[in-house]
Amino acid sequence: MKKTLFVIFLLTGFCVTSVSSAWYWYSIKKNMTFENAYNHCLTDYGAFLTMQTSSTNNYLSNFAKYFTDKVWVGLLARTLPWTGMDGQPAEYFNWKFDEPNGGIDELCATMAYDGEWQDLTCSSHRQSVCSDGSHYYITETEMTWMDAVANCEAKNSSLVQIQNSTMNNEIMNLLSSATEVWIGLNTSVDWYWADTGKSATFLNWQEGQPDNLSGNESCAAMETENGTWTDEQCDELYYFFCKEQVTGGVGSTAVETKVQKSKQTVVKLKIQTRVNMEDPAASAILEEQLRAMLAKQGVTDFRLTWKKLPEKETQETKVNFQMATILHLILLISGFRLVTCCNVTRNYYYINLKMNWTDAQHYCRTKYTDLAVIDNMDDVERLIRPTADNSLAWIGLYDNPQSWKGIINNEPNSWKWSTLGESSTLSYQNWAAGKPNYFGGIDTCVKMETSGKWNDETCSLKLYIVCYQETNSTGQKNYTLLKIALTWEDAQTHCREHYTDLAVIGNEQENSQVQSVKGINVVWIGLNRIPWIWSDKSNSSFRNWYFTQPNNFHGDEYCVVETKSHFWHDDSCGTERPFWCYEAHLVHHPAIKVKRVVGMTFQSHADLSDSALNAQLLQQISEFLGKEGWTNVTLQWKIPPRINNKRHVISP
User: Fold this and answer.
1) Which pLDDT value is given to residue 546?
2) pLDDT at 46
3) Are residues 242 and 333 in the same domain?
4) Which among 207, 205, 168, 197 has a CA at the least distance from the CA of 184?
5) Residues with Cβ < 8 Å from 56, sequence gap 6 or more?
């Protein structure tokens, strides 16, 4: 039986305050580590605690007073890109193997006698190297990094900023075998919300916090007495808040707060299909294709919901063909194809053989279908391994560096120009040496350095921007520098609102134009990418990362492993590990089309109950439409009820 459903598109308009959609906060009186609290909220409620304003913090702190200890705030620390003494992100590095490795505790850099660098706690005491622009000299007194900076400045010089291998070798030749010196390179800590990955704009630290007193204090907690925050080690055990967004109705919750809800325009698309849309796999496939189609049309701010209509019994209607019958010719002009081809059932197999990721992929493709693809938490829960096995195991998610390391192509994880959408026809590139390198597992946007070279960078960093405006049909671009510091995403929005888009660079001449416009400033350009694809080319967007992952810790972690607790980490693809395969079982259904209906009404004295005449007329109309460029058209007749003694006027 056919089932009729409505796909309801909720298209965002302007913002109005409403309490019909609310965040409900739940106080969880269970002592958990930060990671376990985060996962508990994500699984059972949908989101971990974030606070954007002091009013929210004050409101929740009133409830935190009833707890006996601190409460987790959903805030984590991460290190930002390393910067030189000019305040700009550094382009040249000579790190020792496995460095930098100190996390938020080691934020300053030293050089050893062999010329290699390592990160170190800034309060450590070391000698230093100053530069006056033409000479280098070593200070004999050991001091902290900040004191070294001040000492060099007092001598009308600066702590040396090493910009290339030649400078590095010159300084190395000045060092004795026992020397380790401060250099002009450091980083800082950025606190961000675990739930969104975005840097926190509201902070409520207790005086003297964060202090990283015990080392590795990279998670934030709220004091129950006054609502201020402290940094803590993430394995401490505290109570926490979860939140859930509810539209309409009243839930059994501890706290309700107002949120901004967008006014919405509802667009309904009616679909008839014999596919069982109650099957989550089938509805997910259809929803993914709808999203892709809408995105190509520029509609990005929307959400989809399904509404099943009551099934109605149908009765066969007899139609009597008579002379002068009025008919409707219905042109079913196909739009896009919605392929609800099948219900996909995957069986997962744990292979306890140690292989690198590529060999594991080959094994799974030979013996089964492919390395494991995971669509949702139901799939995650089906990954049942032997009880005593604590190994990390490969799954089918990877970030093939051949698609993005020094190349721009049409692979899903490659670099794309903002204004060109999914596919890029521009192959020009101007990367700095050793770039892009996906540092820290977060560098997916591109900036132009002072030199005009490109470098991948974390998208949350705030930089000046260069927008462009197309001036004529030839595609000539006018570039404009805007001295406002924005994240890459905000920069893209600003450029699209006031110009054409963020700077697109198609050749060396345009690169020189942007370099000239920006001057010495480091700026965002319109290049970014979305990492991670599935081995079988599936388009599942589901991810189950451990909260500190991915981090590309060793600089070559382009494949994904699953832990025994089912969280994901990035890992070096050459490591030999057990792995998960899957075998697909498909139950096929016919494809359906969404159609546009165009009605054409006319009168005929021919007896169209004659099937031969009927078919001949449809053939002639089809040929005519084909000549006019309509190629994807289906024709059918619809006979309306005959109404006696009334004259019908057909409007053109």
Assistant:
1) 84
2) 78
3) no
4) 168
5) 257
Structural domain includes residue 648? no
pLDDT at 581: 96
Q: Which residues of the chain have pLDDT under 70?
A: 1-23, 66, 102-103, 177-178, 245-344, 420-426, 472-475, 586-652
- Please indicate, yes or no, if residue 646 is contained in any of the structural domains: no
Burial category of 527 from C-beta neighbours within 10 Å (exposed 0-12, middle 13-18, buried 19 and up) = buried
Domain match, 93 and 136 both: yes
Query: Which residues lie closer than 8 Å to 356 by C-beta, 6 or more apart?
Result: 573, 574, 575, 576, 577
pLDDT, residue 350, reads 94
The whole domain housing 631 covers: 325-340+591-638
Which region holds residue 519: left if phi is over 0, alpha if psi is between -120 and 50, else beta? left
State which of 170, 187, 204 marks the end of a domain: 187
C-alpha–C-alpha distance, residues 305 and 649, integer Å: 41
User: What pLDDT is stored for residue 409 in this prediction?
Assistant: 76
pLDDT of residue 481: 95
Cβ atoms within 10 Å of 128's Cβ, excluding its own: 26
d(CA 353, CA 394) in angstroms, rounded, equals 11
Residue type, 157: S
Q: Is position 122 within any domain?
A: yes
How far apart CA 372 and CA 109 sit, in angstroms, is 41
In a domain? residue 350: yes
The CA distance from 496 to 467, in Å, is: 8
Give, in order, the Cα–Cα distances in Å from 505 to each of 437, 478, 484, 524, 611: 20, 11, 21, 12, 61
Which of 87, 84, 146, 150 is closest to 117 using CA atoms? 84
- Domain boundary pick from 484, 500, 528: 528
Same domain flag for 501 and 629: no
**What is the structure's pLDDT at 622?**
64
User: What are 282-292's pLDDT values in tens digits?
Assistant: 555 556 555 65
* pLDDT tens per residue, range 311-364: 443 333 222 322 233 333 333 333 333 334 455 688 999 999 999 999 999 999
Distance CA(620)–CA(423), nearest Å, equals 40
Instruction: Based on the fold, state whether residues 451 and 576 are members of the same structural domain.
Output: no
Are residues 562 and 468 part of one domain? Answer: no
